[in-house]
Design a protein that fits this description.
With 298 residues, the chain is α/β, with parallel strands linked by helices. The protein folds into two domains: 94 residues, no CATH class; 167 residues, Uracil-DNA Glycosylase, subunit E, CATH 3.40.470.10. Helix content is 49%, strand content 9%. A six-stranded mixed beta sheet has the order 1-3-2-4-6-5, with helices on both faces. A hairpin with a 2-residue loop joins strand 5 and strand 6. Helix 1 packs across helix 7, helix 5 crosses helix 6 and helix 7 runs antiparallel to helix 10. The N and C termini lie far apart (51 Å). The structure holds uracil. Uracil binds next to helix 9. Uracil (URA) binds next to helix 9.
Length: 298
């Protein structure tokens, strides 16, 4: 059945197989997949515990449960083929909070891999934010972008359209992207939470912790060279650090295989335009990492 799959579909399938395999849920794909692909997959795909040993897969300690998470994920993979529902759920949680970077998806398979994450989110009711939302705001832009922006959460315009950064703050972000010499469709944009917090409040820790693992998986699929955290909420969830923005700006942080730069949220820049100069200095760090020159500067 799967022998004639195109490359993108095959990459997406392999990603999903790895995900289930690393949770110990191997029976799903064993029954469903062409034996030739299965054999190739099982001989070529590193397991989570092998990835943990690989030096090129950088590990970032995001939370205090990182060790337990890895133990749970690799323990399940090593010893069991079918889990009870409770075990599967707790392994799934462990997988989500794992600091390990997911295996790389070939560029041609990234759109399909993002689609799989979107499907897994489904009509989400995992946290209370679903009660007030109109549309889930998953992400927007190029699945192979070299530059990705992460904001806090959708506002009213985004909630209505299902697209991140389309309101006033979005217009400023579009201008910032253009000033960097890029088009919006060349970058990828997502948020810490995918549903609008009531009254645009900051997401509660439980909401951010429930939703951000999907963001991490989007980052792992897109694999941007440079990631820009817009504002304190994005910086806190990405870096796992509650430091004030001032202590995080102005330098490059290593994060999940990307170069992370922290800057002000465009909504803050709309309220205090004097800080635009500082934000531009941050974006220039990003441009340097990407080898970009401002438009008109050769
Ligand atoms: N602010 C955000 O953080 N994200 C959006 O998508 C829009 C406004």
């Amino acid at each position: 059945m799967a022998r004639h799959l195109d490359l993108a579909t095959r990459d997406a399938l392999v990603l999903r197989m790895r995900f289930y395999r690393d949770l110990g849920l191997t029976e799903f794909y064993r029954r469903a997949v062409d034996p030739a692909i299965l054999e190739q997959f099982e001989s070529a795909s590193p397991r989570l515990e092998e990835q943990a040993a690989a030096p090129e897969l950088q590990e970032v300690s995001l939370d205090n449960h990182a060790h337990e998470a890895r133990q749970a994920a690799s323990g399940n993979a090593a010893t069991q083929s079918i889990l009870s529902a409770e075990e599967a759920m707790s392994a799934r949680k462990a997988q989500f909070s794992s600091p390990l970077i997911a295996p790389e998806v070939a560029p041609a398979g990234r759109a399909a891999a993002l689609e799989i994450i979107r499907e897994e989110i489904g009509e989400c009711t995992r946290c209370a934010l679903h009660k007030g939302r109109n549309k889930i705001v998953f992400g927007d832009g190029s699945p192979t972008a070299r530059l990705m922006f992460v904001g806090e959460g959708p506002g009213a315009d985004e909630d209505a359209q299902g697209i991140p950064f389309v309101g006033r703050a979005g217009q400023l972000l579009n201008n910032m992207i253009a000033a960097m010499g890029l088009r919006r469709d060349e970058v990828y944009i997502a948020n810490v939470v995918k549903c609008r917090p009531p009254g645009n409040r900051t997401p509660e820790p439980e909401e951010g912790a429930t939703c951000s693992p999907f963001l991490f998986r989007q980052i792992d699929v897109v694999r941007p060279q440079v990631l820009v955290a817009l504002g304190a909420t994005a910086a806190t969830y990405l870096l796992g650090s509650r430091q004030p923005l001032a202590g995080l700006r102005g330098r490059v942080h290593a994060f999940r295989g990307t170069q992370l730069i922290v800057t002000y949220h465009p909504a803050y820049l709309l309220r205090d335009p004097r800080q635009k100069k500082e934000a531009w200095a941050d974006l220039q760090i990003a441009m340097k990492e990407l080898g970009l020159k401002p438009p008109g500067k050769g």
